Amino acid sequence: MAQVKSAQFKQASERAVHDPKLQHALAHVMDHFTTARASAIAADFEEESWESMRERAAAIKAHTIERLDYYLDLVDRSVRRNGGHVHFADNAQQASQMVLDIARANNVKTVIKSKSMVSEEMGINQILEKNGIEPVETDLGEYIIQLAGETPFHIIAPAMHKSRQDVSELFGRWLKTAPTEDITRLCVIARDALREKFAIADMGISGANFVVAETGTVCIVTNEGNGRMTTSAPRIHVAIAGMEKIVPAIEDLALFLRLLPRSATGQRITSYNSFISGPRNPSDEDGPEEFHLILVDNGRLNLLRDEILREALQCIRCGACLNHCPVYRNVGGHAYGWVYSGPIGAIVTPPMTGMEQAKDLPYASTLCGACRDVCPVKIDIPKLLLHLRHQAAEGDGKHGPVVGRLERAFIGRWRKAMRTRQAMESGARLARLFQGPFARGGRIRRAPLPMIGNWTKSRDLPALAKRSFVASWQERQARRAKGGEGR
Amino acid sequence: MRASLCATCLVDQFFPEVGEATVQVLEAQGVEVDVPAAQTCCGQVAFNGGFRTEAAEVARHFLDVFGDAERIVVPSGSCAAMVKVYYQELFADDPDTLDRAKAVGEKTHELTDYLVNVLGVSETGSSGEGLVTYHDSCHTLRELRLKSEPRTLIEGVQGVELQEMEASDTCCGFGGLFSVKFPAISEAIMEQKLAHIAESGAGTVVATDCGCLMHLRGAMARRGLSIKAQHIAQLLAGGEAEGA
Amino acid sequence: MPDMPAEHPNKAAFLARVREALGRTEPILHTPDHAPLKSNQTRQEEKVRTVLARVAARRSVLCERLADVAARASWNVHRAATSDRAAEVLADIADGLKARHVVRTAEDVFTRVDVDGALRREGISPAILAAGRARRRSELKPMAFRADLGIVGVAYAIAETASCAVIQRKGVARLASLAPPVLAVVVEAEQVLESLDDFFAVMRLEHQKRRSHWAPYFNFISGPSRTADIEQTLTIGVHGPGQVHLVLVG
Fold first, then answer.
1. Which residues contact B208 (CB under 8 A, 6 or more apart)?
2. B14 interface with A at CB cutoff 8 Å
3. Which band of pLDDT confidence, cut at 50, 70 and 90, is reported for residue A418?
4. Strand pairing of C156-158 and C149-153?
5. What subunits touch chain A, counting only 3 or more CB pairs under 8 A?
6. Do A187 and C235 make contact, defined as CB atoms within 8 angstroms?
7. B158 pLDDT exceeds 90?
8. d(C-alpha A11, C-alpha A25), whole Å
């Protein structure tokens, strides 16, 4: 499985915030996505009809997740009826082994890949390499980060943090091409390099945007055509899908194909949509002779088991929550430390990889709710983050709490102070004494204290008022009652 | 018309002038205001931190204090959202308290919601001057769906012109505990908000939440910016009860 | 019907764990209450009849919409009143490209649109990208990669999204519409559907009538191959055709 570095979120996010190159890329790309999305939706839909589409999509996904065992069985029977093989992998290791077994059985030397987030979970490229099989990413962004030895920065724009100069340098190093700042030229270089691979690859690995249970159809959404290439040119096609990617019926796709591209790239539809239901018929001219679908759990059961977190399995990986998240927009994808980033990454990473190492992620949100408003399947992201915070602070029944002592102590104090008015007033009196040496003109500029010191690094803190509002009010009421003196 | 004021712990301890302004605005509309003396906090700090046991204890105190009120007015979108929305999460497994929480939630109003949707007010009779820009506090906008209410009221202030900033609906980076857990990210988000406020050309930024205002004021003071950050109640009270 | 591969040994245990996570002990035995799953062939026929009647009544509007949406999605749109005119348009496209290698698929439309004749008059001899007595299947891939222009017909075109739906079968190779740098798609007015819903309803009925496995592969082509992966700058023609022509006949 891909390495989990989520425990370093705090340090990584601070580095990201102070990285001018990264900040430049984020500022540029994020606004592009949000504007494109808004205008694509406004061009075709009234607000209410978009809203009702989201509601329908959420209902269909919830329906499917609640009956996932039924639909997994239906997928299996449908794909096999079409002549495809179906594999069930409990975890990343098993899934990788399945890929290796298929490759070995067919004497595969080169594998071409179109985008698959589950394959990132598996870290399949390293595993294939170790076993003497050459994996080649074919989505341009994925190809760039493969050459750079990195993980995707953004779910739909994996190399958005790379400048044209970076790409030129990578191509120079790996493909021995002359440096250029012409983006069209860079695309031609990649096209030519990958054409060679398309011509010789024996096996294509793809992800799946949707898996249709009724028909056994894997639907792949791409713009470049690499998805079509990967699933058409080689002899063998292996599709890898998280077990939650299912929609019940082929006719459900109409709705999801309206929601996904608009939410993701702000397109009415992507350039290509491929619908693969099995190996080619013997009379067909081309296409793979063998089709495999690997359905992967890899921690998704931990989401499914929890009645509240289950909702996160509705995700169709459009990336809109990332684009609209003030935190993601400032720290980017790598800080989150695993495969999924942004608000949805903050939700799925702890249950999928373990709360202990990912405990900062549910807190890495201001709970502003912008993500929830744009989610095409209406995942209540703030609610789920709060639920995870609850598990982090109080344990989830199986695991104990993981929140630090400092916060626990702070909340303990707070609780004592807020239980009664008397406690609150005496707590405030004490705090007023303590703030004395730091407060100047009603402001505190520096407080060498844990937590509060984090505030005063970049912001003044107001000093506590001399008298609380409630106390002043009471005094005034008392005066009024006594003397009848008006306000 | 009677209303009980939940001052919120921030207003109570840090910004009493906002409490005064709120009372003034309400009384100007003929509302008979009372301020329950036993009030403390809604519990949001602990709830957002994940400490639901502690949050529930404080929230129960809130329900005890405000349970009999006719209406509850809160000069804060996030505290009102805590009571109206998140108490239902907090007490999901406690049916008796849940019923009380729902009843209290229904009669709880953020200040601008109360003025516009309960009292039917669009002008509070106050006056001010110059350009004012409005920052949509996240929970006012996205939990309570109050977007036009504060704007209507701002536009109703004589002598004031509402100048929208870019991305007025983007978070200021406060997020409660977030601001001290991840100060670098909080600051980065805030810088963008400050830039948008400055670019609007307004002399005053108004919001419905003292959390955002504490954040913005603190940041602007540190940077020597002369833009005023005001709670909407202060603007609606006629600018007499101003903060720093 | 293809042979049915065996069930994976982990399936039963996998499903049992999923069921347990959902808090159930028994499997669901009946088709769940989800309307699109429950429509039998009779009902689907009725549904599709309504779709086709609507589409027929609105044909000229839908052709306009298809042309309009396509143009905005970077298609070069050509309206041809007759099949002969369509053949000329295709020849002009090939001529404009100075194309030497042209491949096409073998769809019904080409019995009406005599593209071969029109191309030959320009001195180009198109090849049908299909295996047969004269050509082994293994030759198709290099042929497709070498071509300057691919010409294909469609099963349907969808006005809502300007999507050309191509269904793989004998005579319809996938690579014809993918490998060459320029693609021309011929659509006849009768093939235009209004929406994505129409298309999937029709596909489902076709499958129900066939009483066999699902079509192994179909795809939508809705514009030129594009990427914005470098600096969010839109670039046309990465792996698929960068120039796409839609020839709408009738």
1. B75, B76, B77, B110, B111, B112, B137, B140, B146, B150, B231, B232
2. yes
3. very high
4. unpaired
5. B, C
6. yes
7. yes
8. 20
Nearest to C37 among A198, A232, A248 (CB): A248
Structure tokens that stand for C48 in this block: 């599709």
DSSP class per residue in A311-376: GGGG-----HHHHT-TTHHHH-SGGG-SS--HHHHHHHHHHHH-TTTTTTGGGS-----HHHHH-T
- In angstroms, the CA A479 to CA A458 distance is 42
Note which residues in 212-241 of chain A have CB less than 8 A from chain C.
Answer: 214-217, 223-226, 228-229, 231-233
Instruction: Tell me if chain B has a CB within 8 Å of the CB of A407.
Output: yes
pLDDT tens digits, residue range A139-181?
Answer: 999 999 999 999 999 998 999 999 999 999 999 999 999 999 9
Q: Which two tokens stand for residue B1?
A: 């018309």
Residues in chain A with CB shorter than 8 Å from the CB of C27 are 69-70, 73
Query: Rounded to a whole number, what is the distance in Å from the CA of A239 to chain C's nearest CA?
Result: 14
| pLDDT value at B234 more than 90 | yes
B98, B3 Cβ separation under 8 angstroms: no
Condensed to tens digits (0 to 9), the pLDDT of residues A458-473 reads: 999 999 999 999 999 9
Question: What's the mean pLDDT in B3-16?
Answer: 96
The answer to whether the CB of A364 falls within 8 A of the CB of B185 is yes
Q: Say whether the ipTM exceeds 0.85.
A: yes
Among the partner residues A186, A248, A257, nearest to C196 by beta-carbon distance: A257
Q: Nearest CB to A403: which of B50, B89, B219?
A: B50
Which B residues, 44 through 103, put their C-beta within 8 Å of a C-beta on chain A?
45-54, 57-58, 61, 86, 89
A424 touches chain B (CB under 8 A): yes
Single-letter code of the amino acid located at A14: E
Other CB atoms within 10 A of residue A92 CB: 22
Please state the three-class secondary structure of chain B as a single string: CEEEECCCHHHHHCCHHHHHHHHHHHHHCCCEEECCCCCCCCCHHHHHHCCHHHHHHHHHHHHHHHCCCCCEEECCHHHHHHHHHHHHHHCCCCHHHHHHHHHHHHCEEEHHHHHHHHCCCCCCCCEEEEEEEECCCHHHHHCCCCCHHHHHHHHCCEEEEECCCCCCCCCCCCCCCHHHHCHHHHHHHHHHHHHHHHHHCCCEEEECCHHHHHHHHHHHHHCCCCCEEEEHHHHHCCCCCCCC
**pLDDT at residue number A484:** 59
**Alpha helices (H) in A132-219, listed in sequence order:** 140-148, 164-175, 183-200
